[in-house]
Protein 1
Amino acid sequence: MSNTRQLLARRAKLLGAKAPLFYDQPLHIVRGEGVWLVDVDGRRYLDAYNNVPLVGHCHPEVVEALARQAGTLNIHTRYLHETILDYGERLVAKFDDSLSMILFVCTGSEANDQALRIARCHTGKQGIVCTNLTYHGNTTAVDAVSPLFYGANAPPHPEVRTIPFPDSYRAPHGLAGEALTTHYIAALENAIASLEESGVGFAGLLLCTIFANEGLPDVPPGFMQRALDVVHKAGGLLIGDEVQAGFGRTGHMWGHEAMGVVPDIVTLGKPMGNGHPLAAVVARADLVEEFRERVFYFNTFGGNPVSCAVGAKVLDILERDKLMDNAREVGAHLRQGLHALAARHDIIGDIRGQGLWVGVELVTDRNTRQPAAEQAHRAINLMKDRGVLMGRIGEFDNVLKMRPPLPIAREHADLLLAALDEVLAAL
Amino acid sequence: MSNTRQLLARRAKLLGAKAPLFYDQPLHIVRGEGVWLVDVDGRRYLDAYNNVPLVGHCHPEVVEALARQAGTLNIHTRYLHETILDYGERLVAKFDDSLSMILFVCTGSEANDQALRIARCHTGKQGIVCTNLTYHGNTTAVDAVSPLFYGANAPPHPEVRTIPFPDSYRAPHGLAGEALTTHYIAALENAIASLEESGVGFAGLLLCTIFANEGLPDVPPGFMQRALDVVHKAGGLLIGDEVQAGFGRTGHMWGHEAMGVVPDIVTLGKPMGNGHPLAAVVARADLVEEFRERVFYFNTFGGNPVSCAVGAKVLDILERDKLMDNAREVGAHLRQGLHALAARHDIIGDIRGQGLWVGVELVTDRNTRQPAAEQAHRAINLMKDRGVLMGRIGEFDNVLKMRPPLPIAREHADLLLAALDEVLAAL
């Protein structure tokens, strides 16, 4: 085995010096199993970071389904095959009846890109509203609605308006409740008006339904329903990005269920194939029919039988093993433990999220809510040293991000809590 | 098993009535093996259409590599893993030394989208030139440079100029040789000038290196080298789309080798993972470093160990089984047989392509070269009835398109030729 320094040198030469890596001392991972990742030295890490391996790393039944179908047939969708129909019908049945058609793609970026195309095709307008701290993917069009990583170099995107993400923790002007909702809705109305005035017009609002990259804020009451009303009144569509929120992690199948709205278009990705490149757009039938009528859309790999067999097996396991229940139960246990830690560690300013999507905001002062970004940076590196993987996110990079594979058990959560207790004490 | 009519009804409801399908009577395929596809009634079809299963449908060694790695580790590239480095280094070594860095993605559309981003990042300009009959993929940005399917509804794309594809068979004004090349190069120069004059500026020329969707034209002498010179002189980049041309099918590893040029950026897809969603951008190191420096680029599934293990196994088989040699040899045998058919069937107007990328242009009159599109349509349906799958392509949809899995043998080519002889006689 090469050592880490050699790997880093090879990596910089092949992928670029700035290709992103986690941790001050990067991890060299060689094996995954359930909620565990194993490094080259045989050290095991509790994976509380990766949302993609939804039913656990290298789940043997998923691997078996993958291998069986890959050894039987792997072909595009211009021949008939039943796998795509069986899986697609089963998947759309998990949505509101209005969301009845599906477009298969391979990545969340592709899903969001096609969702933008569908919304623009339907409305005949180009303008998209998104939040000021979101990330929806990496294609040219989706990058334009992903300001999270722009920094100071934000390019001009005349077809995009950003609005402040709805945040109850650092609410502006000391607003709360309905007044806070009205504040954020006014920003949406202004953004739409600005697009209309500029001549670009308004096609839709694209939101992660749990605002994952924004740091899992507690959304002020009624925000999503009022936003949906404003969007529809302006002739636009609501695109619900479920790439991070979907497939049961929140304890709901979809993030928009918890928000009490039904988007016009939903995008799916990351956990859908447990790591296999599988993603989709689920949308109102009239929107998909119209898009198909006016645009030739084909995706060579999208909806192939192997991807669909994998997706179906992920649903099998999710249902049979009651992983949504587990997300609620272990999520609640984890949250309870985090609140106990908060009683001892003043650095914990807020605990947010649902199910096994957890955000812990670190602050240097609970009154001023001054972000503790440097401490969050140290915390995730110290957690790694103690064998637990997590990330950080949010406007100030001070929110610890936890989203383990759904089969995580209470005892795993206890390991995480014990390690975090030590780490917060040592900060 | 459902019958075809039921499947079609389910498909229309789930995917849309206009979701594309092949053949007047669609095929319901249930199994693939080597160069064969098998339908629900057990009927075997010689697959002379599908370029994605490069080393053969459901190759057992590819399936084994897929399953082994999927059962060991499947993770993103923000942890170190060796599979990506081993595969990526091996792959870039197959290019000119100047093309030394790689960005992993999942589809050819993603590859071309990132290639556009890299070219625009480097030049600071937005303008792209492509041919009038090309298709490079389905993202918003790539769709703009894919006029093949626009028809009469071509939307305005101020950042795109199209040029006539270089065609020796239907050359304008009776031009030939260097004079024809000069004609096409002048169109490129005009397109670049138009972009510059409009204020958009010129970022690059995006070309499929074998002009596959354009119908595999015989390119007039020196066109690619002169185009490259014009592009560089104008401060732009040449993006060589190898999604269809690459990985040995032409008898060269890359289409641009046969054209005698080295692009600045190359995109890879379709056959790269033998059906697994694996694609990439290979480019000059300075371009990738600059892109990485200025843009946060990450792809959740791109470059995961499973995809890289599959890609490496495809290269193993391609090399060990000398499939490029086979592409040359069986391709020559097939072409020889097609020329023999042309001696008996006046409808064959032209036979083009390289290796196992073959185009047979059908015309109603060899002098006027009137396209025989309706006959081409009937021909591919009749070939299917005789158990051989092929497609059609080109400006008039009158070019029979053949691109079988590379392990095709002479006796398979003979089957195809015998069936085509009958079909052309019956048209």
Note: Chain A has 13 helices and 16 strands.
Protein 2
Amino acid sequence: MVDQNASRDGRAGRPRSGLATPRRRAAAPLPLPPLGDQDLADAARLLEQAAPAAALAALRALPDLADRGRLLGDLAPHRQAAIVALMERGELAAMVAVMPHDERADLFKRLDEAARESLLPALAAPERDDLRALAAHPEGTVGAVMTSDFATLDIGQTAAEAIDSLRRQAPDSETIYQAFAVGAAGDLLGAIGLRDLLLAAPDTPVAALLNRHPPVVRAGDPREAAARLIARYDLIALPVLDARDRLVGIITYDDAMDVAEAEATEDFFRAGSVAEIPLPVRRASILRLYRSRITWLIVLVFGNILSGLGIAAYESTIEAYVALVFFLPLLIASGGNAGAQSATLMVRALATGDVRAGDWASMIGREVLVALLLGGSMALAVSMIGFVRGGADIALIVSLAMIVIVLIGSLTGISLPFLLGRLRMDPAIASAPLVTSLADAMGVLVYFAIAAQILDLPA
Amino acid sequence: MVDQNASRDGRAGRPRSGLATPRRRAAAPLPLPPLGDQDLADAARLLEQAAPAAALAALRALPDLADRGRLLGDLAPHRQAAIVALMERGELAAMVAVMPHDERADLFKRLDEAARESLLPALAAPERDDLRALAAHPEGTVGAVMTSDFATLDIGQTAAEAIDSLRRQAPDSETIYQAFAVGAAGDLLGAIGLRDLLLAAPDTPVAALLNRHPPVVRAGDPREAAARLIARYDLIALPVLDARDRLVGIITYDDAMDVAEAEATEDFFRAGSVAEIPLPVRRASILRLYRSRITWLIVLVFGNILSGLGIAAYESTIEAYVALVFFLPLLIASGGNAGAQSATLMVRALATGDVRAGDWASMIGREVLVALLLGGSMALAVSMIGFVRGGADIALIVSLAMIVIVLIGSLTGISLPFLLGRLRMDPAIASAPLVTSLADAMGVLVYFAIAAQILDLPA
């Protein structure tokens, strides 16, 4: 029933046998190119481009049920939902029984209440329990990404027996390159790589080969913690423990890659003041795109009113010397740009773990020096323009304002991510637009205050 | 000489034996905590925190040369350089001989000319050639990330013979979970996973199990192409071919993770108008931080002068109605913010392959609708403020200007990444600050043009 290559390991090798055996190429006159020629990822892309009914027909034409399950699991969520909606309960239940455990839990979570209630009784008890347990973990946690089909070993086995046991578990395991020894209470005794088993003398006890203190993660931890551990230790699979120290799942390296990409996208969007969009942008509806952007834009409008109020306070200065307005966008934008740069450096450094929440004090001293150098260089550039347009006074005002504004912008940009972290918010919220709005308002005040002072104008 | 766990696969299992055997804990009275207790990544962190001389002493205290080589390879570049500088030529050559091939090539590239010239004669000929070949690939290409210590199989072998052969190659291979059959001319005949070898009957010919069309990448391709293939096909190792179709290396999944993180950082920095910094930010010098930021800031200064010129053109409008300046920061910032959002969505979608260069036309129509909705909502918000501060005329001017400015900003933000891609530049250069500066200048002109028209003022 289950294809021999139905696992993560198989993907590293040849295409799954059921998807690639030439004899199956002629399987059926499909409206789609035959999936038998394709690797899993390519077959999934083909199905995603077809209409749901055609995709379902192509799926059914695969002779091996496990192939169907795996392919269904590999589809983009919205395509998967469209195809599943066309299936009868029995067919879906048979498919779910052979799908990788993490992917079937994701599918289950996306079904509506009625579909779930209808599906559960059609499943065998172990599958039902596994599905419920995996689907119960909140989004964003390790538990929501992990899979429960890991390979286990008996601590009393020899290396040769363990290899035999892995061979038997292969069809139902996400990976056999990393296996785990589990105690009577379900507690993790240790981890071992297939490589070590192969290299050991056949009669070596597993107990002697076991790494008894492998890196572990908790099911309730944020998913990026697992991705970071896997990247740091170059792991193939990271064991996941529940609150009572029992092994409940694994995170594989390919899941870690997906998590890292999703987290990078999230930070990137936050840095651009865009709320997350679950679908690919290309497919998102107008309304969803609108909703992902309007909140921040309105928030920033009110931030920018502060700049307006600053200007209103200096209206008589402006009336007396309207040429000052020429430099206004330039000065406030420079503060915002410098601030956006500082925020960018800090947000990424905090995200990759290069800088920690406690490092703020040590970063701020260097930032002052960098900002003074930057502000000084830019003051030099604009003082010449100031001199040409308005003489020595204006050159002086614009230069001084530039230095102070770049300093303020940079310090805002570097401090905001730390402050957000302290408030238990994502530092990536310290986006370029947010920092720019704050720097703008402060820039207006600094500029006109300096101008009023030097030109001896009324405030 | 070489530790049995000296590979990527070993990291997934127990700590390398040489780094974890209890008997070795008491090895030497070091100024560092004993490395014997540590996993490779942890030992590397410990060494990085020590002074170079202390780190070298701790390294030398490891009894196994392969352990030393692997640990040295795992250190951050600047720490590695500091330690290598303290080594004599013979010691370095011995270390290089046992280091993973990709890491020793990276080390070699970072040595200065004199150190390279001194090292090469001390190496055996095959190592010298390998080092020269790997180090010759330009930064950013697949060749610069790949490793040449891959496992090979003979197409005439049986599955059992192949497993035996992998066992023998394990100590010198980056991974044995994925092996490659190579023809007489060095051409790639196919790939096979250890899992498939284990599951096959022992006398099955390798030729029957081989995937003859695995995904491949070229040594000259950009490194992110390899990372994307590995993520898409969930590969453990991706074969790399040279221009003459010969297998010259592999990229492993853990290298793909590092590449993906580096690429995400690069895009993130570009989006914030910061040039790349090779060191961790925490350790970068003041001057390096300055250099990474000043170019863009100066470029943007000249961009913002356009806004100033726009204002200068409407100086008489401003003199006649100075209250207009109140809304200036608000309006131009809103256009910049909307543009930054659009650019963020597009840059990321292009980077993840969700949107392609040819999709511009289909994106622009939807963007117009989204921008009109956004501009309309924001016009509603500011028209009230405009009414309170200046009456119906001002409310009308501000609302109209807001809609046009948000539309222009959004279209700029969505088009710039495509345009840059067309010019063969990185779309990520379409940073928030760049889009903001462009939107600012256009916003000034739009605002005052509308105001002059409605208030019937001289331009």
Note: Chain A touches chain B through 131 residues (CB under 8 Å).
